[in-house]
Specification:
Layout (H helix, E strand, L loop, with lengths): L1 H18 L11 E9 L2 E12 L2 E5 L4 E7 L4 E8 L2 E10 L2 E8 L5 E8 L1
Antiparallel strand pairs: 1-2, 1-8, 2-3, 3-4, 4-5, 5-6, 6-7, 7-8
Length: 119
């Protein structure tokens, strides 16, 4: 009987510790990306260079100002571009060397386009 209780206690402890593991890293988006997008009727093709630090990243591009770069622990990505004086947010998913998603005018405005990028 004592052995059975000990085994059950060990199983409960293993499940407790493994279920409490928290994922605190997101996908790696560092590097050079070629982006293609349709944003509010504009066709855009540009290259951006990403320098990631944890869940946030800085990106540079010769054509646009890029800000608010971030990834999530579930594989999502977000960044913003200033295009013709307006701020557009790019939201999407990362799958290795490929990202894609949709765009919004502002952070929570209407969806107005889509985009993809390859590293």
């Amino acid at each position: 009987m004592k052995k059975l209780i000990f085994i059950l206690l060990a199983v409960v402890l293993v499940f407790t510790f493994t279920s409490c593991t928290r994922v605190t890293t997101g996908p790696d988006v560092s590097g050079d990306w070629s982006v293609s997008a349709i944003v509010a009727g504009m066709v855009l093709n540009f290259d951006m260079s990403v320098d990631q630090e944890g869940l946030f990243f800085d990106a540079t591009c010769s054509d646009f100002e890029i800000s608010y770069g971030a990834v999530s622990t579930n594989g999502m990505v977000r960044f913003a571009l200033v295009i013709e004086g307006r701020l557009y947010y790019f939201y999407g998913n990362v799958q290795g060397d490929y990202m894609d998603g949709f765009t919004r005018k502002g952070e929570a405005g209407e969806v107005n386009g889509n985009w993809s990028a390859v590293r």
